[in-house]
Every structure is written in structure tokens, then in C-alpha cells.
Amino acid sequence: MSTAESTASRGWKAKMRRTPGGALTVKIIVLVSGLLFILLGLALAALPGPLTIPPILLGLWIWSTEFAWADRLLERAKRSAREAWENAKRKPVITGLITVSGLVALGVGLYFAARYDLVDRLLELAGLR
Q: Which parts of the chain have pLDDT scores under 50?
């Protein structure tokens, strides 16, 4: 038995699967935790910049530990990321300008959100305050 196999056989998933209903419980835990990260990434889509991508990739990675379809989707995302990185390296000035522009837009957005209490106003409009 390899080190990876012995570690995997002692992990929380392996222990839980040995209990009655444990396999289903593991799938539900993985599904819900991955979904939370993906929803976080989608919620961050309102902000400019690359903040959306990491939580979505983390959610996909969590799902890929249990679901084959998510593993295939994650591999596709990795391929796309490698292609995007290669394209970015071919045009470093444009890539840098886009990145800096996104960060400036984020800073301006945060400034105005704080300056004009936009979060409080949105909560009031939504009836949450």
C-alpha cells in the first residue's frame, strides 16, 4: 500500500463511508461545500477583477474529489486557464493594462461604496434593514 493510499484510507471520507449511510453523507457534504464556493464566486462577479475565478475553481476542485463529471469540468477549466496564460504572456502590456484597470475600478467602486453608504442603501431597498 502506497503512502497516498494509506493516507486516503484514514481520511475523513473513508471513515465516514464505513458508517451506515456514510457514502451518501459524504456526497452531500462535498456537493454542498463545493456549491457554497461556486455561489461565492458568482456573487463576487459583481466586482471587477479576477475575484470570481478562485472560489469557483475551489468549488470545482471540491466537487472533483467525489464526482467524475466535475473532474472532467475541472480539467477543461485548467486547459482554458493554461491557454489564457499563454495568450497573456504573448501580450504582456495589454494584459497588464487590463489587470491594472480592473484593480483601479475595484478601488473606485470600494471608495464610492464607502463614501455614499451604498451597501446600507441597497439593504434598505431590499427591505433587509
A: 1-2
One domain for residues 105 and 82: no
Look at residue 50 in the predicted model and tell me its pLDDT: 63
Neighbour count for residue 59 (Cβ, 10 Å): 22
The residues near 47 (Cβ < 8 Å, ≥ 6 apart) are 106, 109
Residue 37 is predicted with a pLDDT of 93
pTM for the full predicted model: 0.59
Cα 126 to chain center, whole Å?
A: 26
Same domain flag for 71 and 102: no
- Same-domain check for residues 116 and 53: no
Are the C-beta atoms of 56 and 42 separated by less than 8 Å? Answer: yes
> Domain containing 120: what range?
91-129
User: Same structural domain for residues 103 and 64?
Assistant: no
- The C-alpha atoms of residue 29 and residue 26 are separated, in whole angstroms, by 5
Within the chain, what is the greatest distance between any pair of CA atoms? 61
Distances (CA, A) of 58 to 9, 36, 55, 63, 80: 23, 10, 5, 9, 16
